[in-house]
Design brief:
246 residues, alpha+beta, globular, DUF4143, DUF4143 domain-containing protein
Amino acid sequence: MLYPLSFAEMVQHHGLIQEKRLIEHRLVYGYYPEIVTKQGEERELLKLLAGSYLYKDLLMLEQVKKPLILEKLLKVLALQVGSEISFQELAQTVGSDNKTVDKYIDLLEKAYVVFRLPALSRNVRNEIKKVKKVYFYDCGIRNAIINNFKPVHTRTDVGALWENFVIAERMKVLNYSMMDATQYFWRTTQQQEIDLVEEYDGQLTAYEIKWNKNQKVRFSQTFTDNYPGTKSFVISPENAEDFLIL
């Protein structure tokens, strides 16, 4: 695996209390080893890492005939992290076609830059089916792409950043522990939504991911009625270790 370091690995390294103190820093600068080990140089190193890792190495991985399109696509994905995307809209935004956008996102997945989260669609007639969400494996790379290293308490995108962080870290821990769980998000055309749904051994578990632990959360009755027996949890910075360490 070419993943960055993980929350769970850093807890093993210097303990849970210290790593929880560093969560806001991780949301801004991420978990790449060079970033974790060279404090004070994070911004410059991330810009170098994003440039060489995302562009030069990616261009060598497979023949990319339109590097400018790839660069535009990364910026759009970074700005829309946590939102549903359609290839048609992405293609129009970056001035390309659906086939090229699909190919480049696939390439970004193979390079462990981004990953797609599909929609859960089984029982409810008005569930969205074909759209996906795209997240970054590392928040620091995402922030470097849009050149935003502002501290968390000043940001308008902290909710999306926290959602990206939690889902990416959960994916790492599931892979490292070889748990064969499938991940989805859920949304209806009426805008009812659940951030993350996991299926493991036929059992569904629903998660709402909130930066503010005091934010009121209500799981959609449409979801609970149509997927009876589903457990539900809210993940905030206060209890994240229960979800990100197995």
